[in-house]
Each structure stands twice: as C-alpha cells, then as structure tokens.
Automatic annotation (TrEMBL):
This is Efflux RND transporter periplasmic adaptor subunit. The lineage of its organism: Bacteria, Pseudomonadati, Bacteroidota, Cytophagia, Cytophagales. Residues 346-403 form the Multidrug resistance protein MdtA-like C-terminal permuted SH3 domain. It comes from Fibrella rubiginis. GO terms for molecular function: transmembrane transporter activity. Keywords: Coiled coil, Membrane, Transmembrane, Transmembrane helix.
Length: 415
C-alpha cells in the first residue's frame, strides 16, 4: 500500500534560487565595500614612454646656444662728417693698421681751417710789427737820454763854474740861479724821460706777451683744424678683418656715425643668449662645455650683459684652454652651461608629463607592469635631462614620463 511522504521545504529549485541570491548579495556587498572604485582607462603600452627612477649625480646645467665671435671687435665710427668721395676697401677684406678705407669731403671744415690759418698769419704779422716798433722806440729813447745826458753835463759845468765864481762875487746871483735852475730842470726831465721809457717798454712787452699767447692759441686751433681735416681720411685703427662697411660713394656721413667694424682675428669668444630666469645665477667665472669636431672644449664666462631683450640676456664665454682649431666666425653650437656642482639625488627623466601635471603628480607602474596609478610627488631642481625628486618616488620605480594629455582625470591606467 502506498504511503504519503511529507513535503520537503528545501527543494532543489529553492536551493538553486537561494544560492543564486546569496551569490548576488555577496557580489553586491564586495562591490560596495571592497571593489576598486577608482576611474580607469585602458591605454596601449606602445604609445607611452616609461622611465625608471634612479639614484645618480644631479648636474645643474642648462642648454644654451653660442655663436662664435672675434675676441675683440672695434667699431669704426666717423670722427668727422662729410660726403664720401672715395671708397677704397670693401667688407670682408683684411686691413692693416693705418690703411686708408674712405675719403670724405667737407667744405665747411676747409673754410674754418682757412679762416683760422688766416687769423694766425695776421697775428704773426702783428707780433713782428710790435717787436719792430719796440726796437725803434728803444733806439729813440736811448737817443733822447743821450742828448739829455749831454745837456745835463754841459749845464752842470756852467752851474759848477758859477757856484765857484759867486763866492768871489765875480758873477751876479741872478746868473748863478739861472744856471742852477737849468741844471735841475734837465736832471728832473731825465728822470721823467727814463720813467716814461720804462713804462713804454713794459707796455710793449705786455702787448708782445698777449700777442704771443693769442698766437699760440690760434696756432693750436690751426693744428686742431688740420687734424680735423686729416680725420676726413678714414683709416683702419687696428689690423684685422673689415667685416662690414656700410657706406657708398656720394653718401653723406654724420659725425660719430658708425660705418662698419673691424674684427681682431687673433682670438675668438662665444656670445651666448640665456633665459632671463637665470640672470641671478649667472656670473663671470661659471664654466661650460661644447663639442667641436668630436672633441669637448671648456668655456668660461668672462662678461655678463645685464640688459634683457625679448626675455633673454647675453654673456661672453672665452676658451681658457685654447681656441679649437678650425673654428670660424659666425658658427653656432649648443653649449652645456653649468649652474652648480654635481650632487647625489633621486632622478626622474624629463618628459612631457610636466606640462600636464606641473610636476605635482605622476602615474607610477605597479610590480606587474600592467597597471599605473596616480601618485603625488614633489620635484626640485631641473636640468635638460632630469628632475630632482624630493618626495613621492623611490629608486627603481617605473614612471610614465610621456604626455598625459589623453588620460583625462583617470586615476588608474591599465595596459
């Protein structure tokens, strides 16, 4: 006989439904409490650049470009103005000191020279006439004194004779006094004549001194005008290469106008443009280096030009160990300009990531190499090859250093 079995609660269907519900609930709980909720982006590994973080010597330097220039460049300025009548040398020619380059014409200067020369000649004639007049006056005065001396001597004889005779009352007192007054008058007249002669001679000497002084000044003016006329012939002040001469026959040149330059080819230097950001850190004595014909040469800053133009300032660098053989004026070359001594540091290669993050964070690969996560970092100094890492990275870690432009705000990159 059949027996009725009791109905079971946990049927196979219920077990399957309960298990599926528990599995779904567990999955939801894991997703809510434990799953990685960070934004992710899949990228192709071949399209990014990964660089290692390492320990090394951080050399603080900047890459600049230098242009070879002569060690000395002499500006060729017109001392006097005028129009060009002859141009004897073209640019690029080797010239020697004193060689004539240009000849100028200036009628105004010639006229001034002739006027000064005429004035000097007039003063020479005046001086000669004054000296001649002084000689004639001296002869006349000597003659007048000689005649007075003769008259005094004659009057004195008569006076002395009357003085003896009046004692014997041979002559009258009136005759005696008359001869006495005549004698005394002649003596007084001689004193006045001698004093007048001295005054006239002193006055003539003063006139001569004044004329000599005026003549000397005028002759100096004549010499200056002569030198000015000579400056109309433009000569090379030094030997070297006339690199440029910017005038043509018939053109007018003003006084002080630059008409060219002469390069001293006995030595060379490098003229280097540096970003104004480094103006406080660049000073004479800093060293640098560059390659030429497969060899490395040392440079040293000799002069800093403080004027900033278009965000850059110039420095001159010389070759302390000798100029490279075969170097030519106008050649340009990249230069490694050192700003400080090398120091041990954690280094991160330079890359395009910096323009997107400002150096505040980077993507760092995990140990599997299949995922990179965003991490905050702190960078210090920079040279053209490396950043100095201050915080956030350890040697051996791998960092994406290419541009982050296409990564958006995603925190995790998966390859």
């Amino acid at each position: 006989m059949d027996r009725v079995l009791p109905k079971r609660f946990w049927t196979q269907q219920r077990l399957i439904l309960s298990g599926g519900g528990l599995l779904l609930a567990g999955l939801l709980a894991y997703t809510f409490f434990f799953a990685d909720k960070r934004s992710k982006l899949n990228v192709e590994r071949e399209k990014i650049t990964v660089s290692p973080v390492k320990i090394g010597a951080f050399e603080e330097f900047i890459a600049v470009t230098g242009v070879v220039q002569p060690l000395k460049t002499i500006r060729l300025d017109a001392i006097e103005g005028g129009y060009v009548t002859q141009k004897l040398v073209e640019g690029g020619t080797q010239v020697t000191k004193g060689q004539v380059l240009l000849k100028l014409e200036n009628q105004g200067l010639k006229l001034s020279f002739l006027q000064s020369e005429t004035e000097a000649n007039r003063l020479v004639n005046d001086l000669q006439n004054t000296r001649q007049r002084l000689r004639v006056e001296r002869f006349a005065l000597r003659k007048a004194l000689a005649e007075l001396d003769a008259q005094i001597e004659q009057a004195k004889d008569g006076y002395d004779r009357k003085a003896r005779l009046i004692k014997d009352k041979v002559v009258s007192e009136e005759d005696y006094l008359k001869d006495k007054r005549t004698y005394e008058r002649l003596v007084k007249q001689r004193e006045i004549e001698a004093e007048s002669q001295k005054y006239q001679e002193d006055n003539s000497k003063l006139q001569i001194q004044q004329l000599e002084g005026t003549l000397a000044r005028t002759q100096r003016n004549v010499a200056l005008w002569q030198q000015t006329l000579e400056n109309l012939v433009v000569k090379a002040p030094v030997s070297g290469q006339l690199s440029s001469i910017d005038v043509e026959v018939g053109s007018n040149i003003n006084r002080g106008q630059n008409i060219g330059q002469i390069d001293d080819l006995n030595g060379f230097k490098m003229r280097v443009g540096v970003d104004e950001h480094y103006i406080s850190r660049v000073f004479p004595g800093l060293s640098g280096s560059f390659e030429f014909n497969g060899q490395e040469y040392t440079l040293s800053i000799s002069r800093v030009y403080p004027e900033v133009r278009n965000g850059r300032f110039d420095v001159d660098m010389i070759f302390p160990k000798g100029v490279p053989q075969g170097i030519k004026r106008g050649q340009s070359s990249p230069i490694r300009l050192e700003l400080g001594k090398a120091a041990k540091a954690t280094l991160l290669p330079v890359g395009g990531f910096f323009s997107d993050t400002g150096g505040n964070w980077v993507y760092v690969l995990d140990n599997s190499g299949k995922r990179a996560t965003k991490r905050a970092i702190t960078l210090g100094r920079k040279n053209p090859e490396f950043y100095e890492v201050l915080e956030g990275l350890q040697p051996g870690e791998q960092v994406i250093t290419s541009s982050y432009e296409n990564f958006g705000d995603n925190e995790v990159l998966e390859f």
